[in-house]
Specification:
Layout: E1 2-6, H1 13-23, E2 27-30, E3 46-48, E4 61-66, E5 69-74, H2 86-94, E6 99-101, E7 109-113, E8 116-120, E9 135-140, E10 145-151, E11 157-166
């Protein structure tokens, strides 16, 4: 299964749409701060959460089961992601999730803690502390194995981010 993970697109629905069309993923996760009407988000299989800049009535956090894995999705601003990833990891563990997708910091992260994989795709439009905007693609493999790649909005691979990981499976 191929999962596209984006965050912090801050109103650029056209860019989100072009990335979705190019990547042809089985599922889209938007980690918040989409900053448009909900109707401007792509149609199709989608998990979306509200960020600190969103006004639409979407959940603050969500759980999604796909590709043999349980995902926990949150923007992260209410879980202090700027100072520590422990609160979101604990929240994931409480609910049996092996993969956490979050945003808010505008900085791409792919970090494993125990058997929980924490992914921040970065910002699609406004990176902070990283040289380019970014998004992530997660592909499930056999059993507990997943591969994560990071890309620029034009689709170019960012080789210094991502990798192959073994995470808690469903």
């Amino acid at each position: 299964m191929r999962v596209l993970i984006v965050s912090d697109s801050h109103g650029d629905a056209g860019l989100v749409k072009s990335v979705v069309e190019r990547e042809r993923a089985d599922h889209l996760i938007h980690c918040g701060d989409f900053c448009t009407g909900r109707d401007r988000l792509p149609s199709g299989p989608l998990t979306v959460v509200r960020g600190n800049c969103d006004w639409e009535e979407v959940p603050e956090e969500a759980w999604w089961d796909g590709g043999g894995h349980r995902f926990y999705v949150t923007h992260g601003h209410r879980r202090q992601v700027q100072s520590s990833l422990l609160p979101i990891r604990y929240r994931a563990e409480e609910n049996g999730a092996g993969i956490v997708c979050f945003g808010h910091t505008h900085f791409p992260v792919c970090e494993q803690s125990e058997r929980v994989l924490l992914i921040n795709p970065g910002s699609l439009v406004a990176p902070r502390g990283f040289p380019s905007p970014s998004y992530a693609v997660l592909e499930t493999g056999r059993g507990a194995e997943v591969t994560v790649t990071f890309h620029t909005p034009r689709g170019e691979v960012i080789p210094e981010r991502g990798g192959t990981y073994r995470v808690r499976d469903r």
